[in-house]
Amino acid sequence: MFNAKYCKPFSAGKGRPHAAKAALLAALISQTALGDAAGKHHFDIPAQSLNQALLMFGRQSQQQLMYGTDIADNLRSRNLQGDYTADEAIRILLGDAPLQAVTTGDGAVTLQPRAAELHNNLGPQTMPAVQVVGKAVYDSTDPYNPDYRLPNASTATKTDTPIMETPFSVQVVPQQVLEDQQVVRLDQAVRNVAGVNTSSLNQGNTDGFIIRGFQNNITYRDGMLLPTFLGGGTTKREMANLERVEVLKGPGSILFGRSEPGGIINMVTKQPLATPYYSLQQQFGSYDFYRTTIDATSPLTKDDTLLYRLNMSYETAGSFRDFVDSERVFIAPILKWNISQRTQATFELEYQHFDGTNDPGIPNIGARPANVPINTVLLEPAFTKTKGDRVLAGFNWSHEFNDNWKISHRFNYENFDYSSASLFFSAAAQNGDITRRLNIFPVNVSDRYFNTLNLAGKFSTFGANHKALFGFDSYVINERSQGNCCQAAPAFNIFDPVYLTGLPALNPSNNTSNNYTQNWYGLYIQDQIELPYDFHILAGVRYDNADSTDNMIGKVTSDENYLSPRGGVLWRPIPWLSVYGSYTENFGPSSTVFRTDGLTLPPQTAQQWEAGIKTEFFDGRLSSTISYFDLTKQNIRVAGTQAPLFLPRAAGEAESRGVEFELSGELLPGWNMIAAYAYTPFAKITKDNDSNGGSANTGKRLFLAPEHSGSLWNTYELQTGSLQGLKFGAGVSGVDQRQGDPSNTYQLPGYMTVGLMASYQMKVGKSKFTTQLNVDNLLDKDYYAGTNSGNFIAIGAPRSFMGSIRLEY
């Protein structure tokens, strides 16, 4: 794969601007891309950005196309309609662009500046030919991108940076992996990432993870924080409009503010494209699962000034659990306005309706989960439901002052409005008796306002190239709830369940209301420095101020300030190898969770050291990372001991240390793989400051933190012959034994599941038709997916099937 950084065929004269000057980083087209002059192909490529046109050229000519990622920035193509040779087509596409296709003496073909442009900008210098060997370079936003490995990510730095030049552990789960695995929930996506395991929060309705040993219920959407409701309520994120999932392991406070130290899970959404694309997919699976999705994008104007994208999904599902079902509706339109070549604005909206059953799972009996049939539920089918709506509205814009400096701004507003009725319980007695309590909250409203302003620039000083980032962000949360908490429910036995016919009368003395606000502001600066001899340095610092007010037990306020530094060094002595080390600190999420005595919890902080090695093989088609981390967190939250609310308390300190390995990409033509393994031998509470229990939990292992965990998934697609387009896939995923709670009173046994897939793609006119079948938990293993750090143990799904038919054009 061509990497412009390692091809330096020319240099501008001293003081001359690098002319468009995009032509100076020329695209490379392999000899096969132009093909036989006598062979013609049918082309249907509208006038658009040259980058998108070149991608369409590669697909429609069925040839490999190689070019640097910034070859055609700010350049546009000509319209191309009809039957042409590849040689004719590429020249029509270039039109008046200051580029020309040139065949060199050794048979290689390059795109070079036209003679006049070369003379005006570079004098008599020329660009020598470069022979390219490798696969096509796809745009990461291309809906047809088949890659299992993407070279760049933005989550670690908030700039588009090669992962090989990032001194932190970063993994990207691209859209092809999501499609091959038929991912419909975020926890299914991140099981491909080392050190990330699932937990079960909010009775299965909230995305919950364990990252590097620490619990994490915070996710991000295009870098914007998506917290859970103060009381734990939210809904699982919709995947219909996600292009990929990026995971930064370790603290990310410097760029994202108050976050969990284990890592940042950032969902990157699909954006409008200049190339028309339409997709309709119908999925159907075990336990009455049905899901319909639509993806449509196209220009609204002939000059591509206005672009749109629309993603929609509708889903209904039953469950292998009795009385559990759900219904979900999702609509996400986006409008992009290309005001000029350097200025863009985007307007976006998301609407999500959710209606589902609150399933608390099962309790433990002694040191193990209760031995009950997997379909047995401890909920009340007559009323334990969650129903509500989520609305997100966003506006963002950017402007390039020149080729080096760019300003960008993003504003998002998010509203949650839902009602919830649930049950919670303690461990079960040996005879199966449990004590249950009701948690009925008909009013839960949350308003969130997010702003971020960034100025990014490139400059050079004394032989060092800088990529600087200056940023400001603010986050305002207003939440309120009204309900009735903790009233005892009628007696219940898990071995002989008897369900209620309706909601029992509630004691008004248990009525409660809460108003919670948080204002959080941050300033940050970061510099990525490229030094001689292929050294890269990253340094940055952030200042946070957060104040909050809670009126649940009387008005109590807090005001917290923190300075978060981060630094890293990476050496890339040869293109396929990088060695790095880094240190970073973390400012945790809001600590304003109050005890019954009115005291606040102290703010959470963390520190991490990390070192690792990154590699690229087969012209960049296959990459791997092996990393060692040492992560310490202060004031970690653990379950409370004071009845009846059992509000969280803070343990003094916890630490995790371990090694992670990740690999993704193409091993051979048609054979793709993504693999992850984490070994975390040390993940313990090292200090416990409980005033009631002393240091009872000191030395206990962090709950749900396995010592060993990993996954392997690979697919093979036939490349030639009458069965071309047929694909097979298989994979395994598993963890070993985990502690069920911070006190280590019970354990969840380890497990491993096997998955299979098969798909077939065929051309129907100008469209692509794909049929697919996935099997999860092929061997029908019984396992426990996680817990919420208390007694709510989630049961993993038995063998299940997912079919799909998809039409794209």
3D structure, described in words:
The protein folds into two domains: 119 residues, Phage tail protein beta-alpha-beta fold; 520 residues, TonB-dependent receptor, beta-barrel domain (Maltoporin, Chain A). Helix content is 6%, strand content 51%. It is built from seven helices and 47 strands. The strands form eleven sheets. It has a 22-stranded antiparallel barrel. Strands 8-14-15-12-13 form a five-stranded mixed beta sheet. It has a three-stranded antiparallel beta sheet with strand order 1-5-4. Helix 2 packs antiparallel against helix 3.
Keywords:
47 strands; five-stranded mixed sheet; Phage tail protein beta-alpha-beta fold; mainly beta; 22-stranded antiparallel beta barrel; 809 residues; Maltoporin, Chain A; single chain; 6% helix
